[in-house]
Specification:
Length: about 160
Amino acid sequence: MTQVDNSSEDLATTSNAKLKSSEFQRGWKILIACILGSACGVMAITFYTQSLYVGPVTEAFGWGRGQFLLSYTILMLLGAAVVPLVGSLIERFGPLKIATFSLIGHAIGYCLLAITPGSLILWYLSFAFLAVIAAGSLPVTWMFVIHKWFFEHRG
C-alpha cells in the first residue's frame, strides 16, 4: 500500500512540474511581446535616451539644462496623471488597440519634438502631447496583458 501512495505522490509532483513548465512554454510569446512593447514605450525610450540630447539641444537652442529637463518632468507627471484613464480605456477597448494607438502616437510625438523650432513653450507642449498620446505604452498596458493571459491560462 505504501508503494502505491509513493507512486501517486510522484505522479502528482511530475504533473505539477509539467503544468508549471508548460505554462511558461505557452506564455513566452506574450512575455516577449510585452517586453518589446515596454522597451519601445514612452517611459523606457525617453528615460534611457534623454541624457543623450541634453547637450546638443541646449546648445542648439540656448536653453539651460534645467529648462531642458523640465520637459521630462512634465512627461512623467502628466503620464502618471493619465494612467487611470488609460486603464479604463484598456478595459473598454482592449490592450491591443490602446497599445497600437499609443505606440504610433509615441512616434508622432517624437516627430513633433524633431520639428520644434526652438520655442521652449512648444517643446514643453510637445512633451505634454507625448505624455498623453503615448500613455498607453506605459507598463500598465503590458502588465494588464500578462496578468490577463496567465489568469485565463492558469493550471
